[in-house]
């Protein structure tokens, strides 16, 4: 990380890390689905420790779960001082959903991911929980908005 990556406090801007996370997840999604894949959502982006100028940042990503055309990618961000031999520490994590798309940008099927190790199986199960919650939350918000529209509660045209 260099001086051009900083926020007003002098540490690395969260958006710089988020771009690295999105890039790594996109590479993993593209490899797994053997074609183009787009970010559908990013959630639970956690910044655990500040990243500093001079840190070497590592981003590790894997496919945790696959649906019909979507994949959940889990990402871990690690940082180490460029001039010290202390081990890298985890500074962030995130879960992203990517959708594999065809040449027209329409969702296309992805090969299933087959979890093998116990850790992969746990990540798969956790991803299913997040998927269930994402869908339930989206549905609940959609229903609330439809209800409020029907009741005429909001008149200012905002969504
Ligand atoms: C993501 C996108 C392809 C989904 O298209 P869609 O017409 O809504 O298609 P679907 O509803 O069939 O969704 C496709 C899959 O993505 C998942 N998905 C769609 N929107 C999602 C969201 N916001 N969060 C999580 N998953 C999502 C669906 O659950 C579905 O998964 P499944 O096939 O495994 O069951 C479309 O919304 C898109 O192109 N978005 C822009 C992506 C982009 O440009 N990203 C870069 C940011 S600039």
From TrEMBL:
Instruction: Tell me the CDD domains matching this sequence.
Output: BFIT_BACH (cd03442)
Gene3D superfamilies from the UniProt entry: Hotdog Thioesterase
Q: Which SUPFAM superfamilies match?
A: Thioesterase/thiol ester dehydrase-isomerase
Q: Which GO terms describe its biological process?
A: acyl-CoA metabolic process
Question: Which PROSITE patterns has this protein been placed in?
Answer: HOTDOG_ACOT (PS51770)
Disordered, as annotated region: 105-129, 140-159
Please provide the record's keywords in A-Z order: Hydrolase
Which residue numbers delimit the HotDog ACOT-type domain?
1-104
Q: Which family does it belong to?
A: Belongs to the acyl coenzyme A hydrolase family.
Q: What is this protein called?
A: HotDog ACOT-type domain-containing protein
Q: Which organism is it from?
A: Streptomyces malaysiensis
């Amino acid at each position: 990380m260099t001086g051009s990556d900083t926020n007003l406090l002098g540490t690395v801007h969260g958006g710089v890390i988020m771009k690295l996370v999105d890039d790594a997840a996109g590479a993993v999604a593209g490899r797994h689905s053997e074609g183009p894949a787009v970010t559908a959502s990013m959630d639970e982006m956690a910044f655990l420790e500040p990243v500093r100028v001079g840190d070497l940042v590592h981003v590790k990503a894997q496919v945790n779960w696959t649906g019909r055309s979507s994949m959940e990618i889990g990402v871990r961000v690690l940082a180490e001082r460029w001039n010290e031999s202390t081990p890298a520490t985890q500074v962030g994590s995130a879960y992203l959903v990517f959708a594999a798309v065809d040449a027209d940008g329409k969702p296309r099927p992805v090969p299933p991911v087959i979890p093998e190790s116990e850790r992969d199986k746990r990540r798969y199960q956790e991803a299913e929980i997040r998927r269930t919650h994402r869908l339930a939350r989206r549905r609940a918000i959609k229903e609330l908005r439809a209800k409020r529209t029907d009741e005429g509660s909001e008149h200012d045209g905002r969504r």
